[in-house]
UniProtKB/TrEMBL annotation, chain A:
One of its GO terms (cellular component) is plasma membrane. Keywords: Cell membrane, Membrane, Transmembrane, Transmembrane helix. It holds the Pfam family NrfD. It is found in: Cell membrane. This is Polysulfide reductase NrfD. Belongs to the NrfD family. Its main location: membrane.
From TrEMBL, chain B:
Coiled coil: none annotated. Keywords: 4Fe-4S, Iron, Iron-sulfur, Membrane, Metal-binding, Repeat, Transmembrane, Transmembrane helix. It is found in: Cell envelope. GO terms for biological process: cellular respiration; formate oxidation. Residues 40-70, 108-139, 140-169 form the 4Fe-4S ferredoxin-type domain. [4Fe-4S] cluster 3 binds at C117, C120, C125, C159. It comes from Roseicella aerolata. Its cofactor is [4Fe-4S] cluster. The chain crosses the membrane at residues 275-294. [4Fe-4S] cluster 2 binds at C59, C176, C179, C191. This is 4Fe-4S dicluster domain-containing protein. [4Fe-4S] cluster 1 binds at C49, C52, C55, C195. Residues 9-19 have a biased composition (Basic and acidic residues).
């Protein structure tokens, strides 16, 4: 709690600003950061799926593909992220210190560990076909890789929330739940696509169920995030313009409602032996991945916009 | 020989090499020695500010900062607009309704304040910095090391006061250093030294805080009941994880009118609830995945 102002100055803020000028500065984060958030979210959750699936009979193919997906994400993602640095040649300074208060510092280390563990699981299993020791390394690395993967799925939300940007800072817990569910929905959808492509349809269907559950949970998290924004009086940037379109049209309709409905429809058609289930699941999975990306980019842009609005900054710093 | 108004210590240096500074010159200009291990800061008393912008000019001169706005903003006499990568002091101007005849003493119907990096304790920019480029100096000030910053830009949204910014020219974060180089040489920071009314005072933070409390009492007695401090422990501008600001202010109106948030929060406080909720979410979904039988053919 912060101290009260003296009684001699007006106690209630009437919406005054300093010439309408911003109070805080917007981040320089752009689509490269959103792309990184999406890629590493999918990669991280893929490792969680690999760890869970490993216990099931007949899961070898899925586990193998999930590990490769995770490795691919942890290779391409950082390359994208480094492009966002304004002095790219110094990217390695990220590993110069450990700053426990900085989600970006912790995230850099987590990413490093996740990449190494993903390499161990994917390459270890591959080499394990000739050298059994490598296979054992892969199995031993799976648990830690899934833990790191859980972190990768969500730490980007903490990174955004640990700032003075009103929209990001106003709902730390539900925003992280939203990012986590979107990561899991994205990973399950991506792996469902792969499983369908290689003809493991029943495995794909279980992944689609997981994606639907994650999507439903994301709807709940999203409701909570938005109600916190509304209560703080700072929801406008998430409703208007490009961020609004990305969040509502892309994130909610394209990314959640449409694919959940499509999966449900596909199931119903399947049960009747119809043909609606032919490409519908693929389209739904694709929509879920794209919707997750739209949601993250929408949150990013809406946050940058909210930082430019002095009233929003003052609203969240009244008491 | 009598030194007149000059500080007695000036006389010790009458035959010095004019190219060299007086050792611990801050003692002469600000009345305090600059020693490592103590906290230094600014007390900016807005009731004394006349809006001359000498501080802005001195800062640009000493720190070799380029001009960044040569136009007019149309916002009173504030043509600087904002603190940024190249502007480390910014005098705000707000014209108030009351005319000169009805106004309280010690503040015209203009609100003027020389804004600056607050050198917060704890400092959100420093807490966000992943490279260690931002660090706390031996004078308890917060400085960006230009040879380490890699331009990730995370300190920019972290700052609750919109101070630090990336420069387009070199892609690194820049802000007030509280004249780190001058402090090393025993000199008072350029803005404080140039301030003709002593609206900007430099010194050890506890001493400045004492002086500021006394000034508030004095102003209350003299008929300016609105005077209060912003950024001292327990005052507006602190709380919610921010203990105090090494650069603090004496204000006479609501903080918003000076573009200051009344109750800023330490952003790093949000990391824990966020991480916990996120990890719980993933754990829940992992259980769901197991129940669904993900992996089974
Ligand atoms: S005012 Fe901003 S830039 Fe200055 S120390 Fe505080 S957080 Fe850092």
């Amino acid at each position: 709690m912060s101290a009260r102002l003296p009684n001699t100055v007006p106690q209630d803020w009437q919406g005054e600003t300093y010439h309408g000028r911003p109070v805080v500065k917007a981040s320089s984060f752009d689509w490269k950061v959103s792309a990184y958030i999406v890629m590493l979210g999918i990669a991280g959750s893929a490792q969680v799926i690999a760890a869970v699936a490993r216990r099931q009979p007949g899961s070898a193919g899925l586990v193998r593909r999930a590990r490769w997906l995770a490795l691919a994400g942890s290779m391409v993602g950082p390359l994208t992220l480094v492009q966002h640095l304004k002095t790219r040649s110094r990217w390695f300074n990220m590993l110069r210190i450990v700053r426990p208060t900085s989600p970006m510092s912790l995230g850099s280390w987590l990413l490093t560990g996740f990449g190494a563990l993903s390499g161990a699981t994917a390459l270890g299993a591959w080499l394990g076909r000739r050298w059994p020791l490598a296979g054992r390394v892969a199995e031993a690395a799976q648990g830690p890789a899934a833990l790191a993967g859980a972190g990768m799925s969500i730490y980007t939300a903490s990174l955004l929330s640990s700032t003075s940007t009103p929209l990001w800072a106003a709902a730390p817990a539900p925003l992280a739940a939203q990012f986590g569910t979107a990561s899991m929905a994205g990973a399950a959808s991506a792996l469902a696509l792969v499983q369908r492509a290689v003809g493991e349809e029943r495995s794909a269907r279980r992944l689609e169920t997981l994606a639907m559950l994650a999507g439903a949970a994301e709807l709940l998290a999203k409701r909570e995030t938005e109600s916190r924004w509304r209560r703080a009086g700072i929801a406008a940037p998430a409703k208007e313009g490009a961020p609004g379109a990305l969040l509502q049209g892309g994130g909610t309709w394209l990314g959640l409602l449409a694919p959940i409905a499509a999966h449900a429809l596909g199931r119903a058609a399947d049960r009747r032996g119809g043909r609606a289930g032919e490409v519908l699941p693929e389209l739904a999975s694709l929509a879920m991945i794209l919707g997750g990306a739209a949601m993250r980019h929408g949150v990013l842009l809406a946050g940058n916009e909210s930082a430019c609005r002095p009233r929003d900054a003052f609203r969240v710093t009244q008491r | 020989m009598d030194g007149g108004l000059a500080h007695p210590r000036v006389l010790e240096h009458t035959d010095r090499d004019p190219q060299k500074p007086i050792p611990q010159e801050a003692e002469v200009t600000a009345g305090c020695r600059v020693e490592p291990g103590r906290s230094y800061g600014f007390f900016t008393d807005t009731t004394l500010c006349i809006g001359c912008k000498a501080c802005e000019v001195a800062c640009k001169e000493w720190n070799n900062l380029p001009a960044d706005n040569l136009g007019m903003t149309g916002q009173s006499y504030d043509n600087t607009g904002r603190l940024g990568a190249h502007t480390w002091r910014h005098v705000t101007f707000l014209e108030q309704d009351a005319r000169a005849t009805s106004m309280p003493p010690f503040q015209s119907n203009w609100l003027m304040m020389s804004d600056v990096c607050k050198h917060c304790d704890p400092a959100p920019c420093l807490e966000a910095c992943p490279t260690g480029a931002l660090f706390r100096t031996e004078f308890d000030t917060v400085v960006v090391q230009q040879d380490i910053c890699n331009g990730c830009g995370y300190c920019v949204p972290a700052c609750p006061f919109g101070v630090v910014e990336l420069a387009k020219e070199d892609g690194k974060a820049h802000k007030c250093t509280l004249c780190y180089d001058r402090l090393k040489g025993g000199l008072e920071p350029a803005c404080a030294k140039s301030c003709p009314t002593d609206s900007i005072q430099f010194g050890p933070v506890e001493e400045l805080q004492r002086r500021a409390e006394a000034r508030v009492t004095d102003l209350h007695e003299k008929g300016q009941p609105k005077a209060y401090l912003y950024g001292t422990p327990g005052a507006p501008g602190t709380g919610k994880g921010l203990h105090h600001l090494n650069a603090f202010f004496l204000l006479t109106e609501r903080p918003e009118l000076y573009n200051l948030p009344p109750a800023p929060a330490r952003p790093a406080r949000n990391a824990r609830p966020s991480l916990l909720s996120g990890l719980a979410t993933i754990a829940g979904l992992a259980v769901a995945a197991a129940l669904v039988g993900v992996g089974r053919r």
